[in-house]
């Protein structure tokens, strides 16, 4: 699987457009955060598209720091909080809300911890084997335990939701996470976010089914 600036920009355009339509189709204000997920993924992929250009063309090198941090802010700071928050806003079951709230608390903790890492340690990105390899200090994405710790707020809330279609979204994300870990371990951050971005298109159909009352 080869990624490139064209793939990132193309994914950004399609996913953002679908996200805008999903927001227009959402019939409840509680769904807004959930419907916005494709748009946020579209912005994230837009940052990675510019990073590809910066790493491949010296004329765009000035964009490398902004693009690197822009992508990582979404990957490491926004998603662990946004996912449980979006599920919490839609959830009506009290028990499930409590569990999702725990996931949100963990997400806030990750936001603070990873924010500290991004501010204190050296951040770098480089193209390797047709993928972008991100590194923050001496921390690596090749540890299984760190990935599981990240999934608790960034994907598990979908599987806890009372909405069956949202559960399917969470299960698919977990499957793609395993695939990314097994086959693209070194490039986990980039590949996982691309998989999740494409999968976020499913949110359009979830919103559509809710709108139709099916």
Give a brief outline of the structure.
With about 210 residues, the protein is mainly α. The chain contains 10 helices and 2 strands, in the order αααααββααααα. It is globular.
Detailed description of the structure:
- With 214 residues, this protein is mainly alpha-helical.
- The chain is built from 10 helices and 2 strands, in the order H-H-H-H-H-E-E-H-H-H-H-H.
- A two-stranded antiparallel ribbon has the order 1-2.
- Helix 1 runs parallel beside helix 10 and helix 5 crosses helix 6.
Structure characteristics:
two-stranded antiparallel ribbon; 214 residues
State the total count of DSSP E strands: 2
Order of helices and strands: HHHHHEEHHHHH
Global mean pLDDT:
90
Shape, per Cα inertia axes:
globular
Spatial gap, N to C terminus: 36 Å
**Considering DSSP H and I runs of 4 or more, what fraction of the residues is helical?**
over 70%
Strand content: 5-15%
**Which residue ranges are poorly predicted, with pLDDT under 50 across at least 5 consecutive positions?**
none
Structural class per helix/strand content?
mainly alpha
Major sheet details? 2 strands, antiparallel
- For the largest beta sheet, what order do the strands appear in spatially? 1-2
Total of helices: 10
> What is the CA-based Rg, rounded?
17 Å
